[in-house]
Design brief:
This protein is of the alpha/beta class and 435 residues long. The protein has twelve helices and 21 strands. Strands 4, 14, 15, 16, 17, 18, 19, 20 and 21 form a nine-stranded mixed β-sheet that branches. It has an eight-stranded parallel barrel with strand order 5-6-7-8-9-11-12-13, surrounded by four helices. The N and C termini lie far apart (62 Å). Bound molecules: ligand LLP.
Length: 435
C-alpha cells in the first residue's frame, strides 16, 4: 500500500494531509501509518507461516507504546534488550511467554526482572551471563530458560560496519566452539532450562546468503548437541531483514523465507524471528520545517530537525529520501546539504542531495524513518524530542506528546541549592533562590 502518497502535489499519510498534521502537532514530527505497520507485520508472518514462528518484534526499532500495542493485538511477541524494553512490552500487553531477551550486557536486576516475568527465553551472550542466570535460577527456584547466542562468523553485508554483528571480531555472541563447551556445562546446571539457540548477524541485510550460511553453521552445532543427548526446542534467527531506502526494490520477506524455510523445516525446531526495521521502517516519516536557506560555498537548507531527532544519517551515513511535502515540479532542482540546527558539522539529514529549490518555512518529508528514528533520538543541545503521531485513515492520534523544556530539566538536582526542586510552572525553572 502507499501509506505516504502525493495527491495533487501534496503529501498525505493515509488520508490525512501532512500540512494538517503539522498544523495540529507541530514540527519536527514523526508520523506513522497504522495500516502499513499492520500490513508489514502480516506480510512477514505470512512469509514464514509454514513454520508458524514466534514473531518477536525488535522493540529497539520503535518502542512507542501504541506501536507495540498495535503489534501485540496482531499477536506479536517482542525481542527486548533492556529492563526498559521489558517494561514497554509488558505495558503494551505483550505476554511474557512471547518475549526473548537479547543483549551483551544485561544487568542482574534486568535478568531478575525478566526471570520473574516469566519470559520465553534469554539469549545468553557470555559465560558470565550464563552463570549469573544459573545462580538466579537456583536462588529463585525458577529455572532460567536459555538459548546461547552463537556467533557464526559470517560477514554480513550491511551498509555500515556498526551494524554488522555476525563476524568473530565483534562483541556479540559466543564462538561456535566455545558454545559447544558451554552447552555441555549448562546442561549440568540446575538453575537453567536449556531451551534454544540463537544468532543475529546484523541489520539492514539485503541478501539471503549470509543468513543461509549462518543458519547452516548453527544447525550443525544443533545436530552435534543432539548426538550428545542435548535436545533443544527452538532456534532464533534474529532480525536484520533489510528494506529499500531509495527507489531500489530490496528483498521482501518471502525471499528471506524461501531461502531459510527448507533448513528451518528440516531442523524440526520451533522458530523465533526478530524483525524490527522490516515492520516499522517504511511505515514512518519525519516532517520538518525549513528554517533558513543559506547560500555559502554550498547551499544549506537548515531544518528544525537535527541529528538529535534523526541520528542515522550522521551516525551511519545512512540515506533517507528528502522531498518537499508540497511538490512544485516547475521549480528548478539544485544540489543542497540538508542540515539541522545542532552545533556540529556532522549534523545533517542529507548531503549533496538534489531537491526542488525550497523556500524558508516550507515543510520537508524525510522518508523511511519509522525504524531507529525516534528510538535513537536524544535531547542533545537541550532540544525536546519530537512528537509522534499514528494515522489511521482519516484519523490521527498523538501517541507521544512533544517533550517540553520542563521535561528536559526534570530529574536534575541543583547541588548548589540543596532545597531546589526543578518543577517550575510553564517552561520557567524559576529564579535563583537564596544561597
Ligand atoms: N535482534 C537483535 C539481537 C538485534 O540486535 C537487532 C538489531 C534486531 C533483532 C533487529 O534488527 P532489524 O530487524 O531492525 O534490522 N540503529 C541501527 C540498527 C541497529 C540494529 C541493532 N540490532 C540503524 O539505524 O540502522
Amino acid at each position: 500500500m502507499d501509506a505516504f502518497s502525493y495527491r495533487e502535489g501534496k503529501l498525505f499519510c493515509e488520508d490525512v494531509p501532512a500540512e494538517e498534521l503539522v498544523a495540529q502537532f507541530g514540527t519536527p514530527l514523526y508520523v506513522y501509518s497504522r495500516a502499513l505497520i499492520v500490513e508489514r507485520y502480516r506480510e512477514f508472518r505470512k512469509a514464514f507461516a509454514a513454520v508458524d514462528p514466534l514473531m518477536a518484534y525488535s522493540v529497539k526499532a520503535n518502542g512507542n507504546l501504541s506501536v507495540l500495542r498495535l503489534l501485540a493485538d496482531e499477536g506479536s511477541g517482542a525481542d527486548i534488550v533492556s529492563g526498559g524494553e521489558l517494561q514497554r512490552a509488558r505495558l503494551a500487553g505483550i505476554g511474557p511467554e512471547r518475549i526473548v531477551f537479547s543483549g551483551v550486557g544485561k544487568t542482574v536486576t534486568e535478568l531478575a526482572a525478566a526471570l520473574d516475568a516469566g519470559i520465553y527465553g534469554f539469549n545468553v551472550e557470555s559465560e558470565g551471563e550464563l552463570r549469573q542466570l544459573a545462580a538466579l535460577g537456583e536462588a529463585t527456584g525458577l529455572p532460567a530458560p536459555v538459548a546461547l547466542r552463537v556467533n557464526p562468523d559470517v560477514q554480513s553485508p550491511t551498509p555500515h560496519r556498526y551494524t554488522r554483528t555476525g563476524h568473530h571480531d565483534t562483541k556479540f555472541g559466543i564462538p561456535i566452539d566455545e558454545a559447544r563447551r558451554l552447552y555441555r556445562a549448562a546442561a549440568q546446571m540446575p538453575g537453567l532450562r536449556l531451551r534454544g539457540i540463537d544468532f543475529h548477524i546484523g541489520s539492514q541485510i539485503l541478501e539471503t546468503r549470509p543468513y543461509v550460511v549462518a543458519l547452516s553453521r548453527v544447525l550443525e552445532l544443533v545436530a552435534d548437541l543432539r548426538r550428545e543427548g542435548i535436545e533443544l526446542e527452538y532456534i532464533d534467527v534474529g532480525g536484520g531483514f533489510g528494506i529499500p531506502y531509495d527507489d531500489d526494490e530490496g528483498l521482501d520477506a518471502a525471499a528471506f523465507a524461501s531461502a531459510l524455510l527448507p533448513l528451518l523445516h528440516e531442523s524440526g525446531l520451533r522458530v523465533v524471528v526478530e524483525p524490527g526495521r522490516y515492520i516499522v521502517g517504511p511505515a514512518g516519516v519525519l516532517l520538518t520545517r525549513v528554517l533558513y536557506v543559506k547560500q555559502l560555498a554550498k547551499t544549506f537548507v537548515i531544518t528544525d530537525a537535527g541529528m538529535n531527532d534523526l541520528l542515522r544519517p550522521s551516525h551511519y551515513a545512512s540515506y533517507h529520501r528528502v522531498a518537499p511535502a508540497e511538490l512544485h515540479p516547475e521549480r528548478e532542482s539544485l544540489k543542497v546539504d540538508v542540515v539541522g540546527p545542532i552545533c556540529e558539522s556532522g549534523d545533517f539529514l542529507a548531503l549533496d542531495r538534489v531537491v526542488e529549490r525550497v523556500r524558508e518555512g516550507e515543510l520537508l518529508v524525510i522518508s523511511t524513518t519509522g525504524a531507529y528514528g525516534f528510538s535513537m533520538a536524544s535531547t542533545y543541545n537541550a532540544r525536546p524530542r519530537p512528537a509522534e503521531v499514528l494515522v489511521e485513515g482519516r484519523t490521527s492520534r498523538l501517541v507521544r506528546r512533544r517533550e517540553t523544556l520542563d521535561d528536559l530539566v526534570r530529574g536534575e538536582l541543583d547541588l548548589l541549592r540543596p532545597s531546589f526542586v526543578p518543577a517550575g510552572g510553564g517552561d520557567d525553572v524559576g529564579p535563583p533562590g537564596p544561597g
